[in-house]
Amino acid sequence: MAEKLRIIPLGGLDEIGKNCTVLEYGKDMIVIDCGVGFPDEDMYGVDLVIPDFTYLVQNAKKLRGMFVTHGHEDHIGSIPYCMQQVTCPIHGTAMTNGLIKLKLEEHRLADTVKLVTHKPGDVVKAGCFSVEFIHVNHSIADAVAFAIKTPVGTVLMTGDFKIDPTATDGMIDLARLGELGNEGVLALLADSTNVERAGYTPSETIVAESLDRQFRNCDQRIIVTTFASNMHRIQAVLSTAHRHGRKVAVSGRSMENMLKVAQELGYIKVPAGTIVDLNAIKNLPKNKVVIVSTGSQGENMSALHRMAFSTHKQIDITSGDRIIISASAIPGNEKAVSRIINELYRKGADVVYDKSEGLHVSGHACQEELKIIHALTKPKFFIPVHGEQRHLQLHSRLAQQIGISPRNVHIGEIGSVIELSGRSCKITGTVTAGKVFVDGAGVGDVGSVVLRDRKHLAQDGMIVVCLNLLAQDGSILSGPDIITRGFIYVKESEALMEELRYVVLEAVERCQRKRVRDWSAIKTAIKNDLSGYLYKTTKRSPMILPIITEL
């Protein structure tokens, strides 16, 4: 039988972020994007969520290259973790590779990983695959889609995109997409993030106009927070500040790094004398200052968070400061953002964040733009990607509305193996895939059991029971000492603590009467008795850890 193309999503389905897709044919394999996800509220202590790279490690000899659509974290954030396990060239545009290089340097991998820079229109050969870079619009410079020619046909992966006729870096290359449609597209894998929204995504120029309006009516200090990666937005802030005679200072490491890379590559033009050191703003009148800051998503260690809660070493929020939040909250971050806004108001700041002010536009295509891409490319098969289940389902319905047969629309899951020939497309199995948690320097050492324990501790606290028992007969030499954390305030619950000691003594004495000498059995008895008593009296179930020392 002839070989079939296998498309295997390792991330980016049933979730926002962690985008990573494998294309495999015969003895050749490429990877499109390698991003991170961000932890849910119940993932206590987890810093990042990355794909499970087991399948890549198992097939490392087949790997011909990694191709990256753009430089957002949900598309590049896992690259260092992947490159610690497999090695292959990474292909991206100049801005994308500049940001990847920063990540590799942080992980001391810059000297071992080969970065290859391309521009839209370039075609790269990788085994049996031929990958063409196609310019698209997004909320970061140098974003591209990929037209991947395979032995069974052309696969088009849009990456994150929108259609912006007034984009500063030029409109998405619809002409090339139309040509590909005429040549024949076997399968389209398209961004589903904004499929719930009707109409078209507004242009970035709307934000520039709104910023100008906010600057024009303000005689106080202005602090603007936005996504560090949105160079078009930061360029608008710099140009507007220069036009209104203001100096700009930058606060936040990711913002500083992004600005440095963008300037070096020529993606941002800083008007002469506009940017000043953060320490220099103390000597300037407030109506001549703009601070560009990180923290649009309410991150705990971000510059705006530190300003709001008075832990920033150089900036104190004062009454009258105008804070412009030029971003929308990513799902899950709404509470953190609201908390910062409330604190800024408490300090007397003028906070501008309403969507009606036109201070943010999405970088993702709405329904009418998605229809245009479908109509231009005319794919035989459609696989929605980059979204939660509702996004994938709605995108599949939209595709069917404009003529794609329901039999030719396939919604996969992480780890699904989608096999394509020139005439068929079907899900044939699964590979090892899922979520790997990064906690500090640890990668993968926090699993479902550890998270379950952390959740238990967060909800009900912990009780530690310490006992010294005599080895010969199991009699108690000292104790029980009971230590609690996150359960009760001991000084106000002395009666309950005495009851707990009594319950432990009863359990140990019962074991002595039965001549039980197995410490694990004694521990189980203590846990069971304490657990039953505590639930009966407090309706709580703390984690109970008996510690027995044999003397």
Describe the 3D structure.
This protein has 551 residues and is α/β, with parallel strands linked by helices. It is built from 15 helices and 25 strands. The chain has helices at residues 54-58, 73-76, 79-83, 94-106, 174-183, 205-216, 231-243, 253-264, 303-308, 334-346, 367-377, 389-401, 448-460, 494-513, 519-538, and strands at 5-11, 20-25, 28-32, 48-51, 63-67, 90-93, 115-118, 123-126, 129-135, 144-150, 153-157, 187-191, 222-225, 247-251, 289-293, 322-325, 350-352, 381-385, 416-420, 425-430, 435-439, 442-443, 462-469, 476-485, 543-550. The strands form five sheets. An eight-stranded mixed beta sheet has the order 7-6-5-3-2-1-19-20. Helix 5 (174-183) packs across helix 11 (367-377) and helix 6 (205-216) packs parallel to helix 7 (231-243). The chain is globular. The termini are far apart. The model has no long low-confidence stretch (mean pLDDT 88).
Uncertain segments are none
Question: What is the helix fraction of residues, given as a range?
Answer: 25-40%
Biggest sheet overview? 8 strands, mixed
Strand numbers in spatial order across the main sheet: 7-6-5-3-2-1-19-20
Beta-strand level of the residues, as a percent range?
15-25%
Number of helices: 15
Structural class: alpha/beta
Overall geometric form: globular
Global mean pLDDT: 88
Computed over alpha carbons, the radius of gyration is 28 Å
Number of strands: 25
* Cα distance spanning the termini: 71 Å
